[in-house]
Amino acid sequence: MNMLISLRLAIVLLEAAERKALELGLSEDIAIVDEGGNLIAFHRMDNAKIAGIDIAQNKAWTSVAMQMPTSNLANAALPGGPSFGINTTNQGKIVILGGGIPLIFNNKVVGGVGVSGATSEQDIEVANAALLTFNKMTNAGSNSNPNK
Amino acid sequence: MNMLISLRLAIVLLEAAERKALELGLSEDIAIVDEGGNLIAFHRMDNAKIAGIDIAQNKAWTSVAMQMPTSNLANAALPGGPSFGINTTNQGKIVILGGGIPLIFNNKVVGGVGVSGATSEQDIEVANAALLTFNKMTNAGSNSNPNK
Amino acid sequence: MNMLISLRLAIVLLEAAERKALELGLSEDIAIVDEGGNLIAFHRMDNAKIAGIDIAQNKAWTSVAMQMPTSNLANAALPGGPSFGINTTNQGKIVILGGGIPLIFNNKVVGGVGVSGATSEQDIEVANAALLTFNKMTNAGSNSNPNK
Amino acid sequence: MNMLISLRLAIVLLEAAERKALELGLSEDIAIVDEGGNLIAFHRMDNAKIAGIDIAQNKAWTSVAMQMPTSNLANAALPGGPSFGINTTNQGKIVILGGGIPLIFNNKVVGGVGVSGATSEQDIEVANAALLTFNKMTNAGSNSNPNK
Question: Which residues of A fall within a CB distance of 8 Å from B38?
Answer without folding.
Answer: 44, 50, 53
